[in-house]
Design goal:
104 residues, mainly alpha
Length: 104
Amino acid sequence: MCRLDLGQTARAQKLLAQSEKLQDVAHSRNRGMCLGRLATAAIGAGDIDHSADATRKAIVLIRTAGMSSARAVQQLKIVHDGLAPHQRARGVGELLEEIRAVVA
């Protein structure tokens, strides 16, 4: 997360992807936050497909695992704003609608 805060998005994406794979399923809140940060890092690195994938996983956690974290919702808002300029990319428009439904 520090790499992302420093603007090192490509490095942050790599590290957050590794972290996401290591997250315990029982700790859905931590995993959800990791996925949100991963989605943000991927946007910054220009990897819209990876961002969309991480965002979808985070939404599944929120909907099915009962994860209700204000920070996770805030992270999804950040992801939404980052993906908005790419709304014409395949599947991004629909994903933006899903995000809006979750954060509403």
